[in-house]
Predict the structure of Related to cytochrome p450.
Amino acid sequence: RPSCPPGTAPPPGPKGLPILGSMLDIPPHHSWLKFFTWSKTFGPLFEINIAGKPHIILSTEKIANDLLRERGSLYSSREQLPMAVQLVSDNLRSLFLPYDSLWRRNRKLMHHLTMASAATSYQSVQEEESLRVLRDLMREPGEYERWFERYAAGLMMRLVFGKKVITGKERVLERIFKVVHNVERVASPGAYLVDVLPWLMWIPSWFPGAGFKREGYRLHAEELDLFRGLQNDVRKEIAGREKEGVDGGEKGNFTEIFLNSQEKWDLSDDEGAYVVGTLFEAGAGTTSAAMMSFMLAMVLHPSALHAMREEINKVVGPDRLPTFDDIPNLPRVRATIKETMRWRPVTAGGVPHLLIKDDVYELDEKKYFLKAGTNIHANQWAIHREPDLYPNPEDFIPERWLDPSLPTYKEPLSVYPNLQNFSAFGFGRRICPGMNIAERSLNILVARIVWGCEIERVGGYEYGEYEYTTGFNVQPLKFPFRLRAREGMGEVVEREYGRVWSKVLGEKMRE
Ligand code: HEM
């Protein structure tokens, strides 16, 4: 590349075609598998060109941290895709914001809502919701996708808007999921020509070729209407309480916290609505996807389930459900969750960061020139398969987090393994702000399922090696398994369920 400064070289990578670059070599789905294969030829930092745009793929944790974390002021932006970011999100969606003042103000509010101390205060909600999933899973295991989706969305709905989800089929959930699916679709690489040819944005929206613009405006109007409506509902509840003389204070759901201290965050109503809306969007599908991979891991690796069961039998016993107080004493449960997220990462290709200034990175005594405007992908699939860090990377080995002779072991086991700063949640300043909440959601639900359920594969069924959905957040395609309550546990669950949920569901429960 002629533009490389003296003494530097462009990163290695596949040659590709003129104009299209490597576009035709990248499969439309699960591109991380191809990138992993390329990393074996071109090394842990390589560059590809897709229709004129440079992309750098990182395949080790060290390089990802060296760049995305240690040089965070350069590597924390996002590409401003015309369709997904500008038209549909109207430059408001936190996940897509460039590295600027609005993003910083967004992140401050997010941090306030999701930091460890705040996350701990939501644990009672997670205990309630996980009890409900456990009961439904015992009664109708074949509906497991529905239960996990309702769990994750129901939790977020309560935390973000203070609304309880009862059936999982509520109209408001349908509307939010429609928004989430639209965002995934419009942000998919290659979905819109305007993302490749940005000058198309200059076409007026009434022009026959500007259908994308009209669609973008329509999708934005729909989501703004939804987010504003949800915010207004909370506003009305606050007003209602004030009328009755009840003080909501700094507590309450995320929207309420935002509205009660709006000046502190320096965000407009719509900006705040997008912060909490983004938290919902980013938190629901990811958590349920992780749970589905966990179930698959249990079906395929019964010894991992049995080992956790032994731990839980000792720590919890048969007469009560596991609670958050047990989590420090359940390192094997935490190790198995972490191993699931290593083995089958939810955001397997990572969420790309945009480099905003030319940079040079030295690797194996070579200086590579990384150009401003490059998309940097920390490929989790490859990073989680680094053999030095994860011996026998294709195998499911929860012990790698528990055995002092293995490189990922860390003490004390009352704290480690945990999901803090784990590569599955991204890197640097953009790292997932929801990890404290996600970690707790997974810990409690997994502990309860292991405590209460026998899970087995269906004999004769061929479980594929990697049969996963397409998109950014991936989960296994629906698979069969047998699940039944362990002897006596079903009764404990029914008793607790009646105690905790009868008030909430009232008549509905007795039906
Ligand atoms: C198992 C569950 C989850 C996984 C695997 C996950 C993973 C990720 C990843 C990889 C990123 C991109 C990080 C980067 O750019 O380097 C991200 C961003 C984000 N996550 Fe999560 N996440 C999960 C749960 C959650 C939850 C529960 C919430 C909300 C409570 C949440 C909110 C967000 C937000 C708002 C962003 C955008 C941050 C930004 O761009 O500044 N996530 N997540």
About this structure: DSSP finds 19 helices and eight strands in the chain. Residues 94-95, 107, 110, 114, 278-279, 282-283, 286-287, 290, 346-347, 351, 353, 424-427, 430-434, 437-438 surround protoporphyrin IX containing FE (CB under 6 Å). The longest helix spans residues 211-243. The radius of gyration is 24 Å.
